[in-house]
Structure prediction request, 467 residues.
Amino acid sequence: MPTRPAISLWMDQLAPQPPRPSLQGSLTVDVAIVGAGYTGLWTAYYLKRQAPALRVAIVEAEYAGFGASGRNGGWLMGNLLGDDRLLAGLPAEQRRAGFDLLHGIPDEVATVLQREGIDCDYRKGGVLYCAARYPEQEQRLRAWLDALHREGLSNADYRWLVPAELNAQLRVNNPLGAIYSPHCATLQPAKLVRGLAEAVERLGVPLFEQSRVNHWQPGLLRTDQGELRAEWVVPAVEGYAAELPLLRRYQLPVQSLLVATEPLSARQWQAIGLERGQAFSEFSRQVTYGQRSADDRLVFGARGGYRFGGRLRDDFDLNADEVGLRRYLFGELFPHLRNVAISHRWGGNLGMARRFQPHMLLDRAGRIALSGGYGGEGVGASNLGGRTLADLILGRQTALTAQPWVLGERPVTALKAWEPEPCRWLGYNAIIRSFAHEDHVLANPRSAPWRRALARRLADCMESLMR
Ligand SMILES: Cc1cc2nc3c(=O)[nH]c(=O)nc-3n(C[C@H](O)[C@H](O)[C@H](O)COP(=O)(O)OP(=O)(O)OC[C@H]3O[C@@H](n4cnc5c(N)ncnc54)[C@H](O)[C@@H]3O)c2cc1C
Prediction:
């Protein structure tokens, strides 16, 4: 049986599967989905559940889960990037309803997993955002918690843990405190994508692999060997939008990179905690994320870069610096793991929208239904996106379609576009560098107060450009 090269720890853990057939000849459907990641699969799933007679097909350039969906950190979050800004202008009751909808995402996913018999190591243990490496982390965390509470969220949603409370869940070196939220689960990403692919096939959706779309006009997609005619096209390509001319100005490909250790011993885990499958992050602007995998590895990631011209990265055999940064970051939290063996290193492309918040819309003239711009927080967002696109395509006005991240009927070109190069590359990298510089200065206890203040100020300014 032809096998596929492993692209992540998660894919490596799955039994090999033969490729699905590619698209051959001409096929007419109601909805054609480009990309078999979570967005495409969830959209197909909810469409077929609500309208079983609808003809839906998926075309995937490589194989299901090849993109970020088969590579991510496995945090299934009950939120959206920038949801606080998106909901801020609404009356209190509506805002609360919006947050409740988002907080319900992990439970909605759990319901589908149960219904479809998908085992993806789902554990809803919440998430811990910790301050440990330097005192400014605690200040920023406390300010964030205040802002969340001002928006009407309560301690039941986000609460402060003093070091002793944090220690009961996660034991890091030098704990200063943490925010805990129950609205997050962890899972094995590739098991989810494979289970979803099989579920949509059971619902009667053909999934064509090795079928890259190389021509797209309203209602028509072409691959090397076939064509798909459809009333609606759902370009569910997120971090690969740079390859589709219509979308490339709106979803920038940026990378995120991860490492996984060999399975750790019971004794090592006793020293760390995370007994309930909690997700954790050390709260720096490097955007770090970790989890304890079901087979007891520490999986730890941090933000990567952006390539000039939106060039996709396809080689994710991380170099020594990239591995070194991640090892350093988790080693600061868990000094006894500094020299632990790393078994896997990988990464992937994700899509960043210019407003640094997701969008969902229906472009009637272009016959497009689009959900994307999740910016590294798409495991949960794509479930919401799939449900929302199903409602939009079926013409249903629901609580989902009434949310501020849903732009309704708008052309894709109404989205804010990224600046042309070289501004885009210079701007994005200036922001990322200011974050790395801040972290470097603040993590050094010998940095003078004025240097600390300056580094922080610069990073604050840069972060404000992301609003
Ligand atoms: C390393 C990493 C870690 C992350 N960690 C987390 C996390 O812990 N929590 C979280 O919430 N989010 C995380 N994310 C983000 C999250 O994984 C993504 O937002 C989400 O998986 C996007 O799903 P998608 O289906 O929209 O896109 P993808 O999963 O990227 O799927 C897009 C698919 O489209 C296919 N495609 C592209 N172009 C074409 C074409 N021309 N024709 C046909 N097919 C095409 C690709 O092959 C791909 O399979 C992470 C992302 C990365 C890269």
Q: What stands out?
A: The CA atoms of residues 48 and 115 lie 15 Å apart. The chain has 13 helices and 19 strands. The chain has a mean pLDDT of 95. The chain has three domains: 9-72+189-250+355-414, 123-183+253-351, 423-464.
